[in-house]
Amino acid sequence: MNDPASIDPLSDAMRAHRPAPGELAGRVIAITGAGDGIGRAVALAAADHGAEVVLVGRTVRRLEATHTDIEAQGGRATIAPLDLEKALAADYDQLAAALHERYGRLDALLHNAAMLGALAPIEHYAVPTWVRVLHVNLTAAMALTQVLLPLLRAAPDPAIVFTTSGVTRRAAPYWGAYAASKHAVEGLATTLAAELADGPPPMRVNTIDPGATRTRLRRQAYPAEDAGRLDPPEARTACYLWLLGPASRGLTGQRLCCR
Q: Rounded to the nearest 5 degrees, what angle is found at the Cα of 63, between the Cα atoms of 115 and 222?
């Protein structure tokens, strides 16, 4: 069977994108899971192309390391610690208030943080683990989007991007809550795209499947895999910048593959 990504012209255009220097200049972009993996790589790339990046994540030392590297390359970033598993409504409100005070708007939001949970049959899946994974991967993303929508509406060309997974395009036994959450994230994205397409301002909402990538979550899922055979997160950044920046203006409600 052909890989759907191989016959998708939009994904082809995304993968062919080569960001120009300064392509994201003037944009404020918030990224969850910015402490490592794809989130960190996208944060560094976005800052390198002119964006001011808001680094959202649970582990402060990882966010600080990303921040240090961004500053070392001459970029600008802000650290915004937020534990998506444990955060309360007041924590979300505090983050939104801080971003409003500092920037007054948000040009793009990338939901990249995720929890794998357990690889187990549904018959034996622990309900508390299921609840945690669905909360981090889905409910927290909805809550963060909701609280940041006023800031996104204050931008002239706002974009929301969700990282999804190949488990939504094939049978994925034993992937449990993670697979269910990614199916649900795609549903959330298409619902938001339909609700926000007419603005004002028109807001684009898309999902991206990065494919097999050398990340911590991938290692958890495939501990015996030869990670050296996988693409590093840096190989995916051009796809993400295409969706977060002006190159994909007007595109919404799409699921794209960067593999």
A: 35
The answer to whether the CB of 167 falls within 8 A of the CB of 116 is no
Split at pLDDT 50, 70, 90, the class of 259 is confident
Residue 204 near residue 249 (C-beta atoms within 8 A): yes
Catalytic, 178? Answer yes
Q: Catalytic pick from 103, 125, 174, 178?
A: 178
Q: For the segment 132-185, what is each residue's pLDDT rounded down to a tens digit?
A: 999 999 999 999 999 999 999 999 999 999 999 999 999 899 999 999 999 999
Instruction: Count up the domains in the chain and report the number.
Output: 1
Domain residue limits at 101: 4-257
Q: Model's pTM, two decimal places?
A: 0.95
Q: Do 200 and 153 form a contact (C-beta atoms < 8 A)?
A: yes
CATH number at residue 64: 3.40.50.720
